[in-house]
């Protein structure tokens, strides 16, 4: 069984995978250019982040996270092979374009709290995102939206609670 921290890191990395770059530019050149564009964009306001995430599920490769509009409750699950975990907590938007998930992650054998935050900037309808601790800026949503945009993985409704409840029942 994976330690809970490994599962959390794996989940976060899975959520941040980007589509491959079809241009001839190197990955470093693309990252540098995106970082410059993000630096020139103002941070998103909390109300804009709430509008973007509330009532939606962020679908990940191995699970997902639901941002409830009701009291900003957050629930998530992830499963990779026999290893699984689920989370219960809350989410909040803050100044500086910061969106944070504060949750208690549980697996069959372990339990641990985690706070994960992402920074958001927007200019001319293009949203840039990066983990608040480390990571690189990337285009979360182009304008107009393009196939492969991470924002397309934000889908309306709760597509998490049923699976999270099943995993919670297994843990008991």
From TrEMBL:
InterPro entries linked to this entry: DUF995
Keywords: Signal
The keyword Signal belongs to this UniProt entry's keyword annotation: yes
Keyword Signal among record annotations: yes
Signal peptide coordinates: 1-24
Name the record gives this protein: DUF995 domain-containing protein
Annotated organism of origin: Phyllobacterium sophorae
